[in-house]
Structure formats: structure tokens, C-alpha cells
Write a structure and sequence with these properties.
Layout (H helix, E strand, L loop, with lengths): L4 H10 L9 H14 L9 E8 L14 H12 L3 H9 L2 E8 L10 E3 L17 H16 L5 E7 L3 H13 L3 H4 L8 H16 L6 H8 L2 H15 L3 E4 L2 H13 L7 E3 L8 H7 L16 H19 L3 H4 L6
Parallel strand pairs: 1-2, 1-4, 2-3, 4-5, 5-6
Helix pairs in contact: 1-2, 2-13, 4-13, 5-9, 5-10, 6-8, 6-9, 6-11, 10-11, 11-12
The structure holds alpha-ribazole-5'-phosphate (RBZ) and nicotinic acid.
């Protein structure tokens, strides 16, 4: 009888010089990585973070603490290497690229930025769809191509888009049915009246539509960066890469990706539990248990980058750690 790969992976892990199960969730992670790459000797050397940036029409409703121009300014900060995501990427040895998925205003026309603009920001989803079905399909397709491109072992997706916690909450609500009381959070740091206002806006926006298919929900309430992230996750999973999922907004994209292409779920490793209040509900909808809980609430892929060393270590355990037989260590009695 042929062993399945999952059984073979577990057997190899159990033969390593340690009490069975003693590396806990690192063992489960190692199994998952082996399954994603279809081998008992996975390679986990190279990680890339792609940051997708776009603007949101819903920002006009005062749902963020920060003004919309910060999206554009932060794109330039990423390109200059000065943002948290740049610092963490350098610190953990990950590559980083930045995609303009649809920032307000004119194209940047600057060196080093990947231009995949679907439009100059979405429309406000308070009064109509954030984007057309065609724009949504184009964003998914551009993302899918970026996810499939290159030869990274693991990929992470970050985002920058003022007001995108509002979009992620609305999208998450339509995809899961979880209430906006649960899913609406403070984002960049709204105070209590700001949070109440954001929730009221989202309740009105959600009442505009009934039940929606996943891709319809993405077009109605998503953002260009969220749709492109979802597409990238699908493309990367198809290419046999580990997909490291960051915080609240990335998880809303992950949920859309899994609803559109269910096989994507198997490639996903959930990096951390964000401080954003709705994150737990989106993680539950994906039956996801994140690796870290560090009270992060930034996005950009920062949490995903911090999880990369754990993922790399899990693969190294599988490929480099001695077995009892290799090392001449006596096994369990
Ligand atoms: C300087 C700055 C850097 C950021 N980096 C990520 N975000 C995060 O905050 C935004 C979402 O929060 P909200 O929905 O409240 O606008 C996104 O751009 C997200 O990536 C930032 C926000 C700011 C202000
Ligand atoms: O969890 C996140 O991704 C997040 C939370 C707050 C603001 N921006 C991003």
C-alpha cells in the first residue's frame, strides 16, 4: 500500500531526535509546507512581500483617521525603503515589491513601482458598487499573474489604502454574514464616535445589496488592492507556493480568494492575529489559527514578514534535523 504524502511527512517528523509532537505547531506547519510543495524535502529559502496600494471612494465618508493622500505618500515611502514593511523585510531577508493597483490621481511614473492601475481609486460603495465587474475581473487577473510570477518559495501580500479596513469589513460581512458590529474596527485609530460613524456608514452601505456571490461582493465592497491580493493568493497557490496571510485586510482578501477558488486555502499560513476587532471572526470563517499574536494593527504585510522565520525554520526542521537512527540517539522506550 502506498503511503500518502501526509503520512510520510508525519512519519519523518516523528523519527526526528525529539519526543513525538514536541515541536507542536511547527510540526503541523512543516507538514503543510511539504504538502504545498508536494515533497518531503521542501525548499523554503526565498520569500517575497508584494504590497498592493489603492485608494477607496468610501474614504470621503470619514471612516479613517487619516486623509486619503497618505496612500500615495506611503507608496513613495515604500519605494524609498523607509516604511515598517521595508525594515522588517530587510530584517528577515525577504524581497519586497510595490504595486500601484489604483491610487488616486495620476500614475506615479516612478522607477521601481509596478503599475497595474485598475482606476484612480474606487467609487464610494455607500451609493453604488466600488468597481465594475470588469474592473474586478481585471484586478483578479493581474493579481493572479503576479502571484504566479518568479520563483519564490513563500509569498506574502501587504496592502496600503486609506479606508481599506472599512472595505474589508463590508466585504467580510457580505462573505460571512457576521455582523458589522463585530467586523467594524478602529483601523488607524478612530475614537468611539469615529467608530460609531464608520459602523453607521457601513450598515447603510451593506443594506444597499442583498446576498452576493463572492466575486460580486468583491466588486461591490472591495478595493483594487484587495481584489488584486485575492488574485495573487490564487495564482501563488496554483504555483505551489506557501501564501503567508497578514492582518485584517489581507484576511478579507484571503476569504474572497478561498470563496472564489477553494483550493487556495491549503497553501495559506496565517501569520498573526491583528488588533483590528473583526479579525478573529474572519479567521474563524477560514478555520485559521494564526501563528503569532503581537497586537499589530498596521497591515503592509508586517505580520506576515515576522512569521517568515518560523515558516523557514519549520521547513528546515523537516529537511535538516537528524533522525534517531542518523544521530545514534535511543528512541522512546
Ligand atoms: C502612515 C500610515 C501607514 C500605514 N501603513 C499601513 N496602514 C494601514 O492603515 C490603513 C487602514 O486603516 P484605515 O481603514 O483606518 O484607513 C491601510 O492603508 C493599512 O495598510 C497605514 C496607515 C497610515 C496612516
Ligand atoms: O490588521 C490589519 O491589517 C490592519 C489593521 C488596522 C489598520 N490597518 C491594517
Amino acid at each position: 500500500m502506498t503511503e500518502t504524502l501526509a503520512t510520510e511527512l508525519q512519519r519523518r517528523i516523528d523519527l526526528k531526535t525529539k519526543p513525538p509532537g514536541s515541536l507542536g505547531r511547527i510540526e503541523a506547519l512543516a507538514c503543510q509546507i511539504g504538502l504545498v510543495q508536494g515533497t518531503t524535502m521542501p525548499r523554503m529559502d526565498r520569500c517575497q512581500l508584494t504590497i498592493f496600494a489603492a485608494d477607496h471612494g468610501i474614504a470621503a465618508e470619514g471612516v479613517s483617521l487619516f486623509p486619503q493622500e497618505v496612500t500615495r505618500q506611503m507608496v513613495l515611502n515604500f519605494l524609498a525603503g523607509g516604511a515598517a514593511a521595508n525594515v522588517f523585510a530587510r530584517s528577515v531577508g525577504a524581497d519586497l515589491r510595490v504595486v500601484d493597483a489604483g491610487v488616486m490621481g495620476e500614475p506615479f511614473g516612478v522607477e521601481g513601482l509596478i503599475e497595474r492601475r485598475i482606476g484612480a481609486g474606487t467609487a464610494s460603495f455607500l451609493t453604488g458598487p466600488a468597481m465594475s465587474a470588469e474592473q474586478c475581473a481585471a484586478a483578479l487577473e493581474a493579481g493572479r499573474a503576479l502571484g504566479a510570477d518568479g520563483d519564490w518559495d513563500a509569498v506574502a501580500y501587504g496592502e496600503m489604502g486609506i479606508a481599506n479596513t472599512a472595505a474589508a469589513a463590508a466585504l467580510g460581512h457580505k462573505l460571512t454574514g457576521v455582523g458589522l458590529d463585530v467586523l467594524t474596527g478602529r483601523g488607524t485609530g478612530l475614537d468611539d464616535p469615529g467608530l460609531a460613524q464608520k459602523r453607521a456608514v457601513l450598515e447603510r452601505a451593506a443594506a444597499r445589496t442583498g446576498a452576493l456571490a463572492p466575486q460580486e461582493a468583491l466588486a461591490e465592497y472591495g478595493g483594487f488592492e484587495i481584489a488584486m491580493m485575492a488574485g495573487a493568493m490564487i495564482g501563488a497557490a496554483e504555483a505551489g507556493r506557501v501564501v503567508i496571510v497578514d492582518g485584517f485586510i489581507a484576511t478579507s482578501a484571503a476569504l474572497a480568494a478561498v470563496r472564489i477558488a477553494p483550493a487556495t486555502r491549503a497553501a495559506m499560513v496565517f501569520a498573526h492575529r491583528s488588533e483590528e476587532q473583526g479579525h478573529g471572526a474572519l479567521l474563524d470563517a477560514l478555520d485559521a489559527a494564526p501563528l503569532l499574536s503581537l497586537n499589530l494593527r498596521l497591515g503592509e504585510g508586517t505580520g506576515a514578514l515576522l512569521a517568515w522565520p518560523l515558516i523557514k525554520a519549520a521547513a528546515a526542521m523537516l529537511t535538516e534535523m537528524a533522525s534517531f537512527a542518523d544521530a545514534g540517539v535511543t528512541g522512546p522506550a
